[in-house]
Every structure is written in structure tokens, then in C-alpha cells.
């Protein structure tokens, strides 16, 4: 169990640029989640996958955000035309089991700064 | 509305003191789950405990203990004999049924930052 890994750890970009983050979940976990965390707040749900299927998306996930999980393995989160309000920590988590209430295992996150 | 409130923004204690972190939740679901996570400075959220709404027994794990009271919608977390390594942000979270957005979505509180000084 090598844990959930996210890449990059930090990303600084200029407003209007596109960015892509990667998440590698724990290998046997079929569920993968993306959360966003702003300073001083708890994480907020963005989206989740069961295997390769994206089953739910938050209203927070505007049209500029897209997530994929090809082949049910790693996942990418892309933000197009970044805005300063997108600056946050983007957290990926995975879980196993059949129940949605299984504990989530989080990665260290990708901190995005939009200048 | 489904929400989790952690009224204590920051707590500062001296090592070996006991400290309790409060968590109050709101939900219309009858079946739900409550969680506590620890976020050390490295940023990774670490799972500590999960409780379902039908199990009100308190739980103890080493220096950690949890008190779940449905009557007051609270799920408080106590660290006994705190240590410097306990310094972190602690989050309480809720997942539930239709009213809470589904069991696949965690609703987090804003967190309590605990600083344990030597």
C-alpha cells in the first residue's frame, strides 16, 4: 500500500492558462474522489468515480473543470482558463469496498496558485 | 440543511493536557455516518474514525476517544495527555443519504487547529 499520490505538489499559473493534475489512487481501490480545500476551510466535494465511470459532479465543478479516469486507474483533473478564484488545494482520495461510506484515503494534494 | 459545525477555530494547550474538540452536525437523514480526520502540516488528511448513526457507543483508541450523542447531534473528540505530535487541523465530517447528498459525499466542518506546546 503506497498510498494515494498526487502530482504536482504545487502549481503556479497565470490567469487564463490551463492546468492538469494527476492522481494515482491505492491500486485496489475502485472509488476515486476529488475535493477542493481553500484556506481555513474543510474540503469540499467536487466529483467521484467508480472505476472509470464519473457518477457524480458537484455544482462547484463549472464547465471549465473536467475530470477523467481512463481504465479506472489514475485520474486527471483539468481546469481550463484558470481564474484567481481557482486558487486552492486540490485533494484526491480513494476508497475500496462496496459501500459509499468507506473511509477515504487522501493524497497530499496539489496546491494551485493562480496569479 | 446538512452541515457540520466545528465552533472552535483554534485551540492551544500545553503537552499532557487533555483537550476536547467539538463537532455538531445537522442532517435530515436517519442513516448517516460521522468521521474524524487529522490534517498535519504535510497536508494529507488521515482517517481517524467512522461512526454510524445507529451506534452510539463511545469509542476509545489509545489516547483518543469519541463521544457520540444523537440527542445533541454531537460527535466530540477527546485527546488525553496531548503530545506535540498531535498538533494538526482536525476535521469532523458527515455522509448520509439523500438529504446529505449521498453516502459518497463527505460534508466537512471548517476544522479545528490544535497546537500542542511542549
Task: Please explain how this structure is put together.
The complex is a heterodimer of chains A (115) and B (118). Chain A has 115 residues and is mostly beta strands. Chain A is 0% helix and 49% strand. Chain A has strands at 5-7, 10-13, 19-24, 31-37, 44-50, 53-57, 65-68, 75-79, 88-95, 105-106, 110-114. In chain A, strands 2, 4, 5, 6, 9, 10 and 11 form a seven-stranded mixed β-sheet that branches. In chain A, β7 (65-68) and β8 (75-79) form a beta hairpin. The model of chain A has no long low-confidence stretch (mean pLDDT 92). The mean pLDDT of chain B is 93. In chain B, β8 (64-69) and β9 (74-79) form a beta hairpin. Chain B is mainly β and 118 residues long. Chain B is globular. Chain B contains no helices and twelve strands. In chain B, the strands form three sheets. In chain B, strands 2, 5, 6, 10, 11 and 12 form a six-stranded mixed β-sheet that branches. A four-stranded antiparallel β-sheet of chain B has the order 3-9-8-7, with no helix packed on it. In chain B, 0% of the residues lie in helices and 52% in strands. Chain B starts with a strand and ends with a strand. The A-B interface holds A 31, 33, 35, 40-45, 48, 55-56, 58, 89, 91, 93, 99-101, 103-109, 111 and B 4, 33, 35, 37, 42-47, 50, 52, 91, 93, 95, 101-111.
SSE ordering of chain B: EEEEEEEEEEEE
What is the C-alpha radius of gyration of chain A, as a whole number of Å?
A: 13 Å
- The dominant shape of chain A is globular
- Low-confidence stretches of chain A are none
Distance between the termini of chain A: 36 Å
Number of helices of chain A: 0
The computed structural class of chain B is: mainly beta
Question: Approximately how much beta-strand content do the residues of chain A carry?
Answer: over 45%
Counting DSSP E segments of at least 2 residues, the number of strands of chain B comes to: 12
Residues in helix, % of chain B = under 10%
pLDDT average of chain A, as an integer? Answer: 92
Shape type of chain B: globular
Distance between the termini of chain B: 41 Å
Q: Return the string of H and E elements of chain A.
A: EEEEEEEEEEE
**What characterizes the major β-sheet of chain A?**
7 strands, mixed
Helix content of chain A: under 10%
In percent terms, what proportion of residues of chain B is strand? Answer: over 45%
Rg calculated over all Cα atoms of chain B: 14 Å
Give the chain pair forming the largest contact, with residue counts.
Answer: A-B, 27 and 26 residues
Task: List the quaternary state of the chains.
Answer: heterodimer
Protein structure class of chain A = mainly beta
Amino acid at each position: 500500500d503506497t498510498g494515494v499520490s498526487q502530482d504536482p505538489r504545487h502549481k503556479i499559473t497565470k490567469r487564463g492558462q490551463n492546468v492538469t493534475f494527476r492522481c494515482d489512487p491505492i491500486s485496489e481501490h475502485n472509488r476515486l474522489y476529488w475535493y477542493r480545500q481553500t484556506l481555513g476551510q474543510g474540503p469540499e466535494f467536487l466529483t467521484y468515480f467508480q472505476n472509470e465511470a464519473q457518477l457524480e459532479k458537484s455544482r462547484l465543478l463549472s464547465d471549465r473543470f473536467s475530470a477523467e479516469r481512463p481504465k479506472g486507474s489514475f485520474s486527471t483533473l483539468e481546469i481550463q482558463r484558470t481564474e484567481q478564484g481557482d486558487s486552492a488545494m486540490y485533494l484526491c482520495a480513494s476508497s475500496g469496498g462496496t459501500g459509499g461510506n468507506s473511509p477515504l484515503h487522501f493524497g497530499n494534494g496539489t496546491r494551485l496558485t493562480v496569479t | 440543511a446538512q452541515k457540520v459545525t466545528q465552533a472552535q477555530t483554534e485551540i492551544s494547550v500545553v503537552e499532557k493536557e487533555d483537550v476536547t474538540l467539538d463537532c455538531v452536525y445537522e442532517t435530515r437523514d436517519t442513516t448517516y455516518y460521522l468521521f474524524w480526520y487529522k490534517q498535519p502540516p504535510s497536508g494529507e488528511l488521515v482517517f481517524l474514525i467512522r461512526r454510524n448513526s445507529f451506534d452510539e457507543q463511545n469509542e476509545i483508541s489509545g489516547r483518543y476517544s469519541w463521544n457520540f450523542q444523537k440527542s445533541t447531534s454531537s460527535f466530540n473528540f477527546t485527546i488525553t495527555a496531548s503530545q506535540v505530535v498531535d498538533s494538526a487541523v482536525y476535521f469532523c465530517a458527515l455522509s448520509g443519504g439523500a438529504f446529505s447528498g449521498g453516502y459518497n459525499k463527505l460534508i466537512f466542518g471548517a476544522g479545528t487547529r490544535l497546537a500542542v506546546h511542549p
